[in-house]
Design a protein that fits this description.
globular; 47% helix; Aspartate Aminotransferase, domain 1; 6-stranded antiparallel sheet; alpha+beta
Length: 135
């Protein structure tokens, strides 16, 4: 059974940790501060950001009745999924898979950041060094 725009949006927002905010002035669904999806404003489709151009090309080749792109998305890792072909189950699987990828990316980024204590200590050292130079 084809999805409506409202149903597709609700499915995307049902994932834990998602929120809706503007992306290029259009309502969009984000997770881990990263764009996840949106209902296309003109096409009867969902806009999905994928992990790479290679992944997008594989999706287009594997499921041409479901996935497509317009010229606007040709140079970007986005794919459109036709709502008339998309099911609730497939949409949820796609979104959960992408959300998992973004969670791992966010986790790796958090590990790379230094603890706040160390960053504060560096600032104190820099201030002390600046005072020494002034004397």
């Amino acid at each position: 059974m084809p999805l409506t725009r409202t149903e597709a949006r609700k499915i995307a927002l049902s994932l834990s940790g998602t929120d809706e905010r503007p992306y290029f002035n259009r309502p969009s669904v984000f997770i881990h501060d990263q764009f996840l999806t949106k209902v296309h404003e003109k096409e009867d489709a969902m806009v999905l950001r994928v992990s790479s151009m290679e992944m997008r090309d594989m999706m287009l080749e594997a499921e041409p009745k479901l996935f497509y792109i317009t010229d606007h998305y040709r140079n970007f890792p986005f794919v459109l999924a036709r709502l008339k072909t998309l099911t609730q189950k497939v949409l949820k699987e796609i979104l959960v898979g992408r959300a998992t990828q973004l969670a791992l990316t966010a986790e790796k980024a958090a590990k790379r950041k230094k603890p706040l204590k160390k960053a504060g200590a560096k600032k104190k050292l820099a201030k002390k060094s600046a005072k020494r130079v002034r004397r």
